[in-house]
Write a structure and sequence with these properties.
Blueprint lengths: L28 H7 L4 E6 L2 E3 L21 E7 L5 E7 L13 E3 H4 L5 H19 L11 E3 L4 E3 L6 E2 L4 E9 L5 E7 L10 E4 L6 H13 L3 E12 L4 E10 L12 E8 H8 L13 H11 L3
Parallel strand pairs: 1-4, 9-13
Antiparallel strand pairs: 2-5, 3-4, 6-7, 7-8, 9-10, 9-11, 10-14, 12-13
Length: about 300
Amino acid sequence: MTVHAHPGQPPLARGELDRRGDEREREGILAAARDSGDTRVLVLRGDEAPLDSPDGSALAYAAPADVADGGCWAFLGREDTGAAVLVAAFPQGTEDPVSAPHGWGALRSVGGVLGAFDAGVFVEGLSLGRWLLDASFCPACGSLTESAKAGWARRCPSCGREHFPRTDPAVIVAIASEDGERLLLGSNALWGGDRYSCFAGFVEAGESLEATVHREVEEEAGVRVTDIRYHGSQAWPYPRSLMVGFLATAVDDSEAEADGTEIIQVSWFTRTEIGDALEGRGGITLPGAASIARSLIVAWHAGIA
């Protein structure tokens, strides 16, 4: 299924690869795809993929026979031509498992400039590949598991359980002022003092997305919010998040106050200040192009939120 882009859509929410989930149940589908002459492989080294352009706007795919031995393999889906697309994931620090014409690029660095097809393949492959590398042992009995369902499951030969990739939902929120003309952003304690972003946090057990928005924003930024609007979502495999983006309006602008622990500074920015920062001017740094945070900020600035 193709996901069509719309204005302000998160950059990693695009997808033009047919995942063909039905094929994962076919015995030998992964081996058959590796033997096919038209199959393309996205090779990952940690969170990096080989690039096919000096500006990082295209990925370099490999033929199965050109990939080094080892790694964790999985079936990602099929192109419109019917050709299979696979991922071969290797741990960070592995000596180049395939030739990289223009070096290697991390998803967080190049995801925002890739085309829709490459962006979708990269985020799918990295989300699945990291799980395959990290989930070798059964969490129930500790036995070594076996890859199943073309890489989309792990089966324990000891206790018989099947395990699947885990996704942790998190919200991220852009907060507009009461009059809608300013945007509240925060600076994390782990960042430099001039870097600002939206407010985010994981959904707790038994909590709705909307309840998480209210709780996280009040905890981190001190403000109560209203008029919560869904913006979009995208996977963020660092390590396994699904970021669900919202915009909201502050009930009282004067309530804004950093928690002083995770967020060390909160500030209201005018539309002009945000516009300058998006163009690389001014004194603040905004999130990178691959992040849903930047998508939220761009949408607010453009008035399309």
